[in-house]
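Board notes (copied after class):
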Amino acid sequence: MYLLARVERVSKLCENVNEYLLRLDRKLGSKPGQFVMVWMPRVGEIPISVAWEKDSLLKLIIARKGVVTSYIHNNIREGCRFFLRGPLGKGFEITQGEALIVAGGYGAAPMLYLASMLREAGSRVTVALGFRENRNVMLVEEFEKLADRVFVATEDGSVGFKGQLTELVSSILSSSRYDIVYTCGREQMMERVVRMAMNAGIEVQASLERLIKCGIGICGSCTLEPQGLRVCWDGPVFNGYKLIQVDDFGKWWRDASGKRVPLPT
């Protein structure tokens, strides 16, 4: 069953990333880290993380990557319709205490919703954001309204810390004590963050991206080996203890044909 959503506002966040504010027929009832399947008739269906929800309003942040996302960027304006299935998958567990959010690129999208829920739960929130360069930076002001501290890293040094996000995270972890780390972004980055957190004895949760077709654990396109975990059903959020046992984590995924191939860099 699809929910009908109408576009109330389209905002450009940075190069090739737009935010869509949608009004639904009813409340979706999502949790941070969950996703929806977005269907564009005669074009295709894709998974998109929920970036924010309140009452009947929903935000989706969509990066231009493939056929469906390019269609949305080129054609969807205020007043247009979205068709949604969801919420789907398992989201982040909200805990109280000192929380560190680590997000790379458009992986910041679901973490905005997470930051707001952590704030409501009474947690102290530190956010570390990583981007390649200035033209990719997004959501910094939005995070600053929700978090106690926000750090930004760019690989070329055009904004904030110069270097890899993992270098910034290493410095943050060495200077403060955290109860939990949450991360989303490029998987090779998350693999390093998960190991840093676990080596420091800190609980960690990571949100994975895979090629998701059905969204309900049937087709197997998003399977993680060797356990056979399905990202759309058992995740997309997994704890670190489970992920370090997954051979595919940070290394492999499946293409459209189901073939196991190296993760894009």
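Comment from the instructor: The chain has a mean pLDDT of 92. The chain has three domains: 3-88, 92-207, 209-265.
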